[in-house]
Design a protein that fits this description.
Length: 84
């Protein structure tokens, strides 16, 4: 990762288009080349609306609960699936 950003840094949730506008204004991010991995479908939808091209849903963010079937986005079972 080049950098990690938390929505608390901006004071607005990732579900808000305002978050994405602030993120783009403060960082040199080209949304057509960006990847967002998240377990929230609402966040992934907002990112898609804001132009993020690569979206990946986590289907089982809690190992104590069963995974979810997600058809709207490409999925991985957990973050461990994409980490080295």
């Amino acid at each position: 990762f080049d950098e990690m950003v938390c929505s608390h840094d901006y004071g607005v949730p990732k579900e808000s288009l305002e978050f994405w506008q602030m993120l783009y204004a403060r960082h040199d991010i080209q949304p057509e080349h960006a990847l967002l991995v998240d377990d929230s479908l609402a966040v992934l939808r907002a990112a898609r609306q804001a132009g993020v091209a690569q979206l990946l849903a986590v289907s089982q963010p809690d190992s104590q609960r069963p995974g979810r079937k997600i058809d709207e986005f490409f999925t991985v079972e957990s973050f461990a699936d994409i980490l080295p």
